[in-house]
Design goal:
Elements: E1 12-16, H1 21-32, E2 37-42, H2 45-55, E3 60-64, H3 70-77, E4 82-85, H4 92-97, H5 99-120, E5 124-130, H6 139-157, E6 164-170, E7 172-173, H7 180-189, E8 194-196, E9 202-206, H8 208-221, E10 227-230, E11 233-236, H9 237-247, E12 254-256, E13 268-270, H10 272-276, E14 278-281, E15 284-287, H11 296-301, E16 313-314, H12 323-331, H13 334-342, H14 348-353
Parallel strand pairs: 1-2, 1-4, 2-3, 4-5, 5-6, 6-10, 7-9, 8-12
Antiparallel strand pairs: 9-11, 10-15, 13-16, 14-15
Helix pairs in contact: 1-8, 3-5, 5-6, 7-9, 9-12
The structure holds uridine-5'-diphosphate-glucose.
């Protein structure tokens, strides 16, 4: 996050779904940057209690509730300045089995967050989305794509709205709960082979710090309906597995298990049509909403004269990290360093060499 003026001093911020890894990191940053109050709205009182004790700051307030229930959101958002909307059903397999549940939380719940924020006079709402919302093939991605549409429709329907609603799209957040890197490390520690779905599958890799910076960037730069992505590097899953084995100096082999249901060989952070109207902002792209109004003839009869892009921003086509570069990136993660230290492995020379 920017060190100059944080923009959060003396402000009240609501984080929906704030008890996960993103929530912890963003809350600690916001507290350090002088927020007056941070509210967490989530369903699990046990996780809230754990976080209350871990962080132990009286500026942190907890609201038990579900974003599916408008009144839960309405209560939590009263007198709030900004909202970071992270609450979601994010597990691909569970959303495949329960797509209606994904719809209720990710679409209807997000609509509640936007509407309650608007009614409460919130200045800015940033909604967290995912690359899986681009050309979605699974229910989780489809529901997130619809969340993006809900967020953008706010500005389309209310041209003079005081509440700015924007979205950010993440790639894979490294070491997030339930993801592949902690799994590989557990497999190495247990002396097992690494289960790799398809060694050629590619993913965008983002650290948790990158993902918090992306939300912060959106917060500071968003115009109504904007969507932001962070430029990211990608790697193959085979190289990710090999890099993990190398760092842990393990003897585990790679065992190919095949692609799981509802997953893609590569992910796209933006379509080529979106890139055509995107603004390059250094480490980020700003993608503006299509602001044509609901006059159907405008939709049907007027095209956009824009520079065409030929390719999507896809994890198969962006510059790919080598195994050694993936090792360096893994070493930036505190969790990986902790695991290496616990295993009695030194990595300091490697860090000095970088
Ligand atoms: O045993 C395993 C499990 C996974 N993978 C692969 O590792 C990569 C990453 O998998 P995982 O960490 O499970 O993440 P994704 O399935 O890509 O989805 C995550 O990343 C998304 C962003 O793309 C988020 O939206 C989701 O919430 C989050 O679960 C994928 O290519 C998997 O095929 C393996 O090779 N072996």
């Amino acid at each position: 996050m920017s060190e100059v003026s944080s923009g959060y001093e003396g402000k009240r911020i609501l984080v929906t779904g704030g008890t996960g890894s993103f929530g912890h990191t963003v809350v600690e940053k916001l507290l350090a940057q002088g927020a007056e109050q941070i509210r967490i709205l989530s369903r699990d009182e046990a996780k809230q209690d754990l976080m209350r004790h871990e962080i132990g700051d009286p500026r942190l307030r907890f609201y038990v509730g579900d974003i599916r229930d408008y009144h839960s959101v309405e209560r939590a958002v009263r007198d709030v300045d900004f909202v970071f909307h992270a609450a979601a059903l994010k597990q691909v397999p569970s959303c495949e089995f329960f797509p209606t549940e994904a719809m209720k939380t990710n679409i209807i719940g997000s609509e509640n967050v936007v509407r309650a924020s608007d009614n409460a006079g919130v200045t800015s709402v940033v909604c967290l989305s995912t690359d899986k919302a681009v050309y979605p093939v699974n229910a989780m991605g489809m529901s997130k794509a619809m969340m993006e549409k809900v967020a953008q429709s706010h500005g389309l329907n209310n041209p003079n709205a005081a509440t700015t609603v924007s979205c950010v799209r993440y790639g894979n957040v490294m070491y997030s709960r339930g993801s592949v890197i902690p799994l590989f490390i557990r497999q190495i520690k247990a002396g097992k082979d690494l289960t790799v779905t398809n060694p050629d599958m590619t993913r965008f890799m983002m650290s948790l710090a990158d993902s918090v910076d992306l939300v912060d960037f959106a917060f500071h730069n968003a115009n109504q309906g904007d969507l932001f992505i962070r430029k990211a590097r990608a790697c193959t899953v085979g190289d990710l597995a090999q890099a993990t084995v190398n760092l842990f100096r393990a003897s585990s082999s790679i065992h190919v298990i095949g692609t799981r249901h509802a997953e893609k060989l590569s992910e796209a952070l933006a379509t080529r049509e979106e890139l055509s109207r995107a603004r390059d902002m250094g480490d980020y792209f700003r993608i503006q909403a299509d602001k044509r109004d609901l006059n159907y003839s405008v939709y049907f009869e007027e095209g956009d004269v824009v520079q065409a892009e030929y390719s999507d921003y896809d994890s198969h086509t962006v510059p790919r990290m080598s195994v050694s570069e993936v090792e360096d990136l893994l070493l930036t993660l505190p969790e990986v360093r902790r695991e290496l230290t616990a295993a009695g492995l030194s990595y300091n020379k490697r860090l000095v060499d970088q």
